[in-house]
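Extended Data, panel c. Modelled sequence:
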Amino acid sequence: MTATDPALTALSQGWCALSLLHGRIEAHIERALQAEHGLSVREYSLLDVLSRQHDGVGGHLQMKQVADAVVLSQSATTRLVTRLEDRGLLARYLCPTDRRGIYTNVSDAGLKLLAEARPTNDTALREALDDAAGNPDLAPLVRVVESASAPAHPVPSAGVPS
């Protein structure tokens, strides 16, 4: 395959369109969440992921799993957790079966803020998709997003690439 190969060019154009769609959606949601709730997209995503933890087997996430779920490095995720913990939205505690493990739970204040922010996130997502649907290069990707169903377990398990 050469740089001028039509298949490679189409692949590159598809990737550019996907990247553009993602960027537009994320920027639109970011503005809405910041304006209404003082949250970034990453902060909202972290609260959302952690709010889905449960007490059953595999219900509490290790920091690597959280990092994978919010698409950040472990160090960036730790800094994000610290910022939200400083705001009283999260709390950390030691794993009861492995004293080396540290888990993070969403506080009552974090759950309240998440519940308030969820409609804003959903509305901003819908608006961004509706806007992108008017662009002929992005419309096919919007249709794919709209037809995709969420996986049963949206948080990747340890060792599984995301």
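The first helix runs from residue 6 to 37. This feature is highlighted in the accompanying rendering.
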